[in-house]
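Protein modeling request. Please complete all fields; requests missing the sequence field cannot be processed.
Requester role: graduate student
Desired output: 3D structure, token encoding
Chains: 1
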Amino acid sequence: MESVLQALNQKMDKTIRDLMQKLGKIRTGRASAGLLDEIKVDYYGQMTPIKQMSNITIPEPKTIIIQPYDPSSLKEVEKAILNSDLGLNPHNDGKVVRVPIPELTEERRKEMVKVVGKVAEEHRVAIRLEREDAVETLRKMQKDKKITEDDLHKGQDRIQKKIDEIAKKIDELGQKKEKEILEV
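Delivered output (184 residues):
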């Protein structure tokens, strides 16, 4: 039974990490290096993540500065950001690429909040599916006489407690991101 609970814990941790990563990519009107995580630059014919080939800093809340380790790649970094679907307009000054983060319109903020809700719900569904798998595994163990009926009920209670804890964490992360988006 412990192995089932341990596996469930690992899956829950992975779900929370995935949620945090996805929420980090949602634009809030505030500079965040996470916005650039998915951008890849054509670097000598190889698609390279921007964060692997540059130093990324946030000197102020509305600006991202990207300093490629190889200055000859400035144009490619700028082009990759322009071609991304983030709606950002980078400026190349010959040494670094400055990316000003524009204010979000009220309509765009509402769209972003809906996206956050959708991402959070996808993760809630994922943990419910993991719960079902874990409970099914326990039922099979009980059927095969590897655990008692009492152990089955205790295991189900522990699983539900963990699911409730993770669901609360998902809600908290989603609410925090929504608040970030709605801040003016």
